Amino acid sequence: MSALNNSIPSFPNHVTIGVDMVATIFRYVSILAAAFVGLYATFLGLLTTPSFQAHVVYLHKIQMTWFKDLDVPETFGFLRNQVTPFYLETSDAEKLHAWHILPVELYRKHELALLQEPVGLVSDITSRLAFKLLREDPEARLILHMHGAGGTVGSGYRVPNYRALSAGQPGKIHVLTFDYRGFGRSSGNPTENGVLLDAFTVVDWAINTAGIPPSRILIFAQSMGTAVSIAIQNQFAQQNPPVVFAGAVLVAPFVDAVTLVSTYSVAGTIPILSPLTRFPTLFKSLQSFVRDKWSSKDRIAQYVRANEANGEKYHLTIIHAEDDYDVPWSHTPELFWYAVNATSSTGIGLDELGEKRSESSIDLGAAGSVMEWRTENGVIREEILKTGLHDLIMGYPVITMAVMRIFQAVDPSFTC
């Protein structure tokens, strides 16, 4: 018996400790994995509730300007009274916080008078010199700025964006930017219908209070704002008589909310719902809970069809960067096709568009590529940049060029 015991190999203590350590690590990893799955399942459950879903979609409580006063635009780098903060009231009694931004050359010409006015939030913008410079100048142009999800009118790259918008004609191009309901200092909570009412309120102010005709108004939009812009332009184009603006510049758009959530990843690395696309039944079930659809692909097609049918001139420029990790740039060629397809009563097939792209697309090398689709009534332009990320692109010269290209197409005499 002792001989048998002697034949059984013994393991060193450090091997036994190693096995125990592996087992312990495996146990902790299993617990963490189970916790992650549980948290993810809880997150998906919360997404089906309207309130939580709104916070995830709009990110309206993430201001990114907590330590600055939005009623003191000078703290964001503007000149004294270059920006006039004021409120617009919607038909459902929400108050929208807005900025009217003077172009720098116009400001220079009237600097002394502007310096004499009090600073900060104004109760009656029509009494201010900046407003009169907008309303009383028959050559003035106005850009209605519709920002993306999260933040406020003063957040991140939006301030450099305002400068890029007016840089082509710094004596004539005013900018009106505003926070949707629930954002920044604006009251209420965002919903698709509510945000569209906000956009309608701003457009109505521009036309009827500021007195700027639609032909001198351009809509600039980025990310979520592109969905708002397309929807409001379509709404006005469907009116009788139709109202069509000088044009629109859409940066980093998406085809619709459902497609976006199926491709979106936080910081380009942490997917939100894309893992569920492997389970079509579950993913389709979750899609049914998406409250705000923001179907830009359908609305842009309706907009184009309406203008083609009515013989109205229209200009659309869609811009996206290939390194955008928030909204994949693949959304833009798809949205471009929906717009192009609507220009013909018989439709334009993807293969046909692909052939046209290979023939007429301009390769700009490191600057990206450009393609235009022209009809008797409209111009639909697609610009794909190699770089620019999701927000940085807004301060690029391509934005200034897009604005001037549209304004000059409407009025060739509008030059520096």
Automatic annotation (TrEMBL):
Q: Which domain of life is it from?
A: Eukaryota
Domain AB hydrolase-1: from-to ranges? 143-305
The UniProt entry's coiled-coil ranges are none
Keywords assigned: Membrane, Transmembrane, Transmembrane helix
Q: Which Pfam families match?
A: Abhydrolase_6
Q: InterPro entries, from UniProt?
A: AB_hydrolase_1 (IPR000073), AB_hydrolase_fold (IPR029058)
- The membrane spanning regions, by residue number, are 25-47
Q: What is this protein called?
A: AB hydrolase-1 domain-containing protein
